[in-house]
Prior knowledge:
Blueprint: E1 5-6, E2 9-13, H1 14-17, E3 19-25, E4 31-36, H2 39-50, E5 57-60, E6 78-83
Parallel strand pairs: 3-6
Antiparallel strand pairs: 1-2, 3-4, 5-6
Amino acid sequence: NDTDTDTRNPNLTHKQFKMTVKVHQVATGxxxxxxxxxxxxxxxxxxxxxxxxxYHQAILTQKGKLMENxxxxxxxxxxxxxxxxxxxxxxxxxxxxxxxxxxxxxx
Length: 107
């Protein structure tokens, strides 16, 4: 509920530590808002609202930089949601130069 407190800082209420983030879904152009404090929470909210598994989600900054789960979000942040392809692109490992960190993306 809205009166829950953040256990790290009892002076912060629920509404103060959950930030409203605008998500731009790259593949469809859809834009929607989600409340989350970090990228991990954002992915879980997207799964609940849109049914997209967290392991298929890549959250990017507006400039296209991949965000990590522990990255904190600010009120009013805008991010891009890109989704990984099932089975990859078929081009072969390390074609993009990313090595073991390769994630084939739709866009």
